Amino acid sequence: MGDPKKRRKSYQTPRKSFSKERIEKERETKKTYGLKNTRELYRADSIIRKKRKNARNLLALGLEQRLKREKELLDSLKNMGILRGNPTLEDVLTLTGEALLERRLQTIVWRKGLANTAKQARQFITHGHISINGEKVNKPGYLVTTEEEEKIAYHKQEMILEQKKVKATKEKESEKKELQEAFDEAKPTEIEDGE
Questions:
Q1: Which CATH number fits domain 104-186: 3.40.50.150, 3.40.50.300, 3.10.290.10, 3.20.110.10?
Q2: Tens digits of per-residue pLDDT, 94-149?
Q3: How far, in Å, CA of 54 to CA of 68, rounded?
Q4: Of 174, 172, 194, 35, which Cα lies nearest the Cα of 105?
Q5: Could you please report the per-residue DSSP string of 95-111?
Q6: Do the Cβ atoms of 160 and 129 come closer than 8 Å?
Q7: What ranges do the domains of the chain cover?
């Protein structure tokens, strides 16, 4: 029996730990996509960084050697849904980590309207309410292929999405109006001080 494989980091951290602009940009991205922590963002950036590095290496090769590998790289990115149409290696060089974040199950569930927010989409997925092709998936970071995108649905029962805040405020406003009207009607008439 062999030893278990060593778990290695699947991401790289930035060279400068404290850069105000980068930290603010990361905060906005995490908020937009409902990420749990910055590691999820770093992981997406690392995957895209590797794809861009492969594209640069292919551009350095001769034409004959490049053709087969180029097709494999572009097909893998098209299947993931990151690139569309007839992409070239130059298109791969312009990719950012946000292109990969758009392909996460969490983001797609939110964009399709199965959840009101990205964080709610994450909660639905982790609680087992979302399935792909009838199979429950409980990983918000699952990268959805273009074939699987149409097969995303609620698992077994449909969730009822409500705009609770809007309803609650309208109900409170109507209650306030009713109370104010009742209070105005019940006001005692003022006694004239004639004497």
A1: 3.10.290.10
A2: 999 999 999 999 999 999 999 999 999 999 999 999 999 999 999 999 999 999 99
A3: 13
A4: 35
A5: --HHHHHTTBHHHHHHH
A6: no
A7: 10-101, 104-186
Q: Where are the beta strands (DSSP E) in 44-175?
A: 130-132, 135-136, 152-154
**In sequence order, which residues have a C-beta less than 8 Å from that of residue 37 and are 6 or more positions away?**
30
Tens of pLDDT, residues 65-105 = 888 899 999 999 999 999 988 999 999 999 999 999 999 99
The conformation of residue 131, written as its DSSP 8-state character, comes to: E
The radius of gyration of the chain's CA atoms, rounded to the nearest angstrom, is 27
Distances (CA, A) of 156 to 13, 18, 153, 159: 40, 46, 9, 10
Q: Give the pair of three-digit tokens for residue 92.
A: 């791969």
Residue at 79: amino acid letter: N
Task: Say if pTM beats, i.e. exceeds, 0.85.
Answer: no
Those residues with Cβ within 8 angstroms of residue 101's Cβ, 6 or more apart along the chain or in another chain: 29, 33, 35, 41, 44, 107
Assess contact for 11 and 43: CB atoms under 8 A. Answer: yes
Cα first-last separation, the chain: 108
